[in-house]
């Protein structure tokens, strides 16, 4: 069986896209845009169809031979999954055991625990499209929410310690960086200006 024509016709738009706001009306990249970027990450699938190696703009993928696992971009896996032509194998970090361990680290240590850089976006896309391929998906959603809240609290605490030279928050992920970027840029601008003109600090 070869690559179905109906799948070829829409592989370029794997996730819902929203019209980007004008630069004057936004401070950072929107979450849907980050999800679109994350959809280029490779994931493992169990194909339910055969497909020869096929070239796309972003690269060539395949061949697919059921039931042999294969690695393909997330956007491609999502298209196949929505057409019931594959099962998506969840990444190791999208499991209850892994997330429970990371939650303990987040709540008991001041530093951020390590996650894949685009784990937030990938987790949302995978849970939206392939929740039936993910064991204990409801529990995983709950753990991700708790982890996000714990990491947001650390981000707020870190921003309170900002100075004019740097802000060190290692292991932040793409969505988290995107969220704090507008405030960070404005705050660093003000602090830099005050450093250059100390008289302003005393109201001269």
From TrEMBL:
Lineage: Eukaryota, Fungi, Dikarya, Basidiomycota, Agaricomycotina
Domain DNA replication complex GINS protein PSF2 N-terminal: 30-89
Protein name: DNA replication complex GINS protein PSF2
Main location: nucleus
Annotated Pfam families: PSF2_N, Sld5
Family to which this protein belongs: Belongs to the GINS2/PSF2 family.
Biological processes per GO annotation: chromosome segregation; DNA replication; double-strand break repair via break-induced replication
Keyword Nucleus assigned: yes
Superkingdom of origin organism: Eukaryota
């Amino acid at each position: 069986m070869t690559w179905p024509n109906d799948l070829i016709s829409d592989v370029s738009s794997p996730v819902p896209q929203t019209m980007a706001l004008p630069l004057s009306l936004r401070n950072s990249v929107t979450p849907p845009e980050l999800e679109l970027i994350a959809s280029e990450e490779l994931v493992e699938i169990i194909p339910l169809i055969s497909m020869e190696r096929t070239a796309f703009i972003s690269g060539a993928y395949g061949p697919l031979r059921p039931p042999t696992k294969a690695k393909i971009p997330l956007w491609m896996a999502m298209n196949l999954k929505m057409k019931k032509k594959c099962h998506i194998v969840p990444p190791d970090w999208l499991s209850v055991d892994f997330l429970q361990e990371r939650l303990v680290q987040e709540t008991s240590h001041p530093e951020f625990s390590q996650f894949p850089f685009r784990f937030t976006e990938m987790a949302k896309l995978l849970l939206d499209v392939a929740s039936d391929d993910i064991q204990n998906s409801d529990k995983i959603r709950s753990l991700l929410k708790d982890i996000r809240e714990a990491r947001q609290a650390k981000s707020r605490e870190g921003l309170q310690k900002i100075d004019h030279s740097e802000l060190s928050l290692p292991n932040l992920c793409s969505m988290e960086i995107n969220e704090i970027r507008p405030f960070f840029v404005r705050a660093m601008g003000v602090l830099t200006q005050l450093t250059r003109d100390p008289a302003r600090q005393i109201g001269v």
